[in-house]
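Protein Record: Sequence and Backbone Structure Tokens
======================================================
Tokens: labelled as protein backbone structure tokens, with as many entries as the chain has residues.
Question of interest: how does this chain fold, as expressed in backbone structure tokens?

___
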Amino acid sequence: MIPRYGDPRESGQRYRLRPGAYAVLWRDGRVLLTHQQEPWPEFQLPGGGIDPGESPIQALHREVYEETGWRIGGARRLGAFRRFTFMPEYDIWAEKLCHIFLARPVRRLGPPTEPGHSAQWMAPQDAADRVGNAGDAAYLRRVIRGLA
């Protein structure tokens, strides 16, 4: 069973399944997060929705580049979690199925191409304390325990 983090499903609310791929990006003892300004300021694991016809790995590479400006290598799947949330930028209630990977930032190509995003390096524990959802935090802490 895939664990759920955050609020439970609201009774009577219809949710659209929204699969996504996200990465814990570890390099030289630090973690690379994305900071998203809208719809509210929040630190997140870089990643996002998997487009139709796209594999999770393809989506991961595309989303990490868009949100951080970095290319990645060595992506390894860690697991998945679900969370139920309203996504105001799409005006939908979503059941997010978040596939989580561990990867290494290899090369910065430039600033993020996604408007309102910035790439932020942090100490791992600071990153786990500052991300905006409990699922991201749980996977960061899992990686910290395994790599620290």
